[in-house]
Amino acid sequence: MNNRIACIASNTFREAVRDRVLYNLIAFAVLLSGAAILVGQISIDIEKLVVINLGLTAVSLFGVVIAIFVGIGLVSKEIEKRTLYTVLSRPVRRWEFIIGKFFGLAGTLVVNAFCMAIGVFGALLYVAHKFQKPDGWVLVALYFIILQFLIICSLALLFSSFSSPLLSAVFAFSLFVIGTFSEDLRNFAAMAQGMTKWVATAVAYLVPNFSALNVISSVAHGQPVSSQLIIFNSLYALLYSMMALCGAILIFQRRNLK
Amino acid sequence: MHAIEIVGLVKVYSVGFWRKRPKCALHPLHLNVEEGEIFGFLGPNGAGKTTTLKMLMGLVFPTSGSARILGRDLNDPGMKAQIGFLPEQPYFYDYLTARELLEYYGRLSGVAGKDLSARVQSVLGRVGLPDVAGVQLRKFSKGMLQRVGIAQAILHEPKVVFLDEPMSGLDPMGRREVRDLMEQLKAEGKTVFFSTHILSDAEALCDRVAVIHLGELRAVGAVADLTSGVQGKVEIVWEGTVVPTSIKTIGATCHVTGDTVRAVVAEESQDLVIDALRRERLRIVSLVPVRTTLEQYFVEKLKRSEKTAGSLA
Ligand SMILES: Nc1ncnc2c1ncn2[C@@H]1O[C@H](COP(=O)(O)OP(=O)(O)O)[C@@H](O)[C@H]1O
Ligand SMILES: [Mg+2]
Predict the structure, then answer these.
(1) Measuring from each residue's beta carbon to the nearest atom of ligand 1, which residues come in under 6 Å?
(2) What is the pLDDT of residue B233?
(3) How many structural domains does chain A have?
(4) Which range (A40-44, A173-177, B22-26, B254-258) has the least confidence?
(5) Residue of B71, B54, B73, B72 lying closest to B63 (CA atoms)
(6) Does B188 have pLDDT greater than 80?
(7) Smallest Cα distance from B57 to chain A, Å
(8) Which of B9, B10, B23, B199 to mutate to test the pocket of ligand 1 (most atoms within 8 A of CB)?
(9) How much is the pLDDT for B133?
(10) In chain A, which residues have pLDDT < 50?
(11) Host domain of residue A232
(12) Which of A120, B7, B173, B235 is 20 to 30 A off residue B264, Cα-Cα?
């Protein structure tokens, strides 16, 4: 990574930390330990199921919310406050700025998810007293969640490069919701007729496929994840975020700053 | 090679929310700035100074025309490492301390390692902020931010420094310091290009100035050349309530307030008035220039061109 991108990325991370973004970890810790203690008292069999399901869902949701709320302001806020003037008048190319911002936010989310993952495993240990082999799949589920963050970061950046924070938030959230149900949408498209079929198919393939990235409930049941899916998801997330970033760069390259 | 070479830059904004109308902020601008000079870019508010600077910095794109800095293209990173820019009313990441901000900018400009922290410390001293390096910028006053802005513009020892209204938001002391700083930069062989609507600053500092009004270039040249044939005015105050007839005859406007008389006269008749007052043994309280020659030039030139607006290229 070149020096300027690293610089912008680390400054973005520093901003998130100083804006107290990582404080969400406290809420997460309270939620998870409360849940662990509660289920620990009731049953013997479903406690792992509950901890994994709840823990991973929380990791994903907290991260998505941060990705969207921080991501939508990454470019537009800097234009609005004119902090970009003194950055872009230096030997920083516009694409370097976008990529730097992306890595900064992605880094923030990875650190955040890493702390949460420690919490999830801690809670698992607390309710089950020891780790078992299938618990390893939780790591794969976490990996998929991080892939999901990368996609959302890049989309938030894309929207941030041309629209206001409020609109960007609306766009990003809608895409997240539709993307979560993208499998249902595909099934619907397969059954529909005529125009509806075309539109539904187009939308289903355009929105990010978060269904495939969500293996939380199967992992909670101790089921393995196929290596095929791991490879497919990795490539998919990589391609999807690269395309969104390219879009963001293309738009931002041409933009007149206010 | 010119330090800055502007060839027919034009900027047309489109304004209006529903119906977009074109608004020409800058008519074709041709301008050359030589290496090593302090060049003043003068004009009233809304003249198009900031627009020009933003185009030179690659922040907005020209509608047509082109420009080169140090003989290189505007988006050449090698050139950008050699320029510094202070935006109008600068604003910075307020979660950073002054030192962190300058280190960040230094790295972006390719300054690294031990060199960087030494330079940050020295530049903070140079702009008069040696003691607040560790304070978050959200606690800075407007004048302090302006100083940080100047610091970030000169931190990496650029060859050409662009300053948009560098004196704004500063107290008289601060303005004095910024003037001195600009003179030091010139002494170091740097080119300084600054915009201002405060003429006394330009008059005191500039080798040459350009005058721009309503997006059109009106004049370029040394201050002395532009203002030759233009008169400044002085205000003379003396004790008493008497106005000698010889002063009345030169057409001075006189006001009697309490036991002093205040007269505003053209610079050239200043000696005449003084002689008259001494003849009458009236005590002179003060003699101050009220309008610098450049200001007078502005008033006359811009007024005239407003009347004939449109016919001028
Ligand atoms: N982003 C913009 N959109 C539309 N009009 C603008 C924009 N920026 C500046 N203008 C107009 O362009 C003209 C020149 O503005 P500016 O360059 O800021 O003047 P100055 O810096 O000399 O005071 C003004 O009339 C201003 O209203
Ligand atoms: Mg301006």
Answers:
(1) A 258; B 13, 15, 23, 25, 43, 45-51
(2) 80
(3) 1
(4) A40-44
(5) B54
(6) yes
(7) 5
(8) B23
(9) 94
(10) none
(11) 3-254
(12) B173
pLDDT, residue B313, reads: 34
pLDDT of the residue at B304: 67
- pLDDT value of position B310: 43
Contacts of A85 in chain B (CB under 8 A): 54, 57, 59, 85, 87, 90
The vertex-B202 CA angle with B200 and B206, nearest 5°, equals 140
Q: Report the predicted TM-score, pTM, of the whole model to 2 decimal places.
A: 0.88
Residues of B with CB under 8 A from a CB of A: 54, 57-61, 75, 77-78, 80-81, 83, 85, 87, 90-93, 95-96, 104-105, 107-110, 112, 149, 152, 162
- Domains by residue range for chain B, with CATH: 2-226 (3.40.50.300), 230-291 (3.30.70)
Higher pLDDT: B72 or B247? It is: B72
A93 touches chain B (CB under 8 A): yes
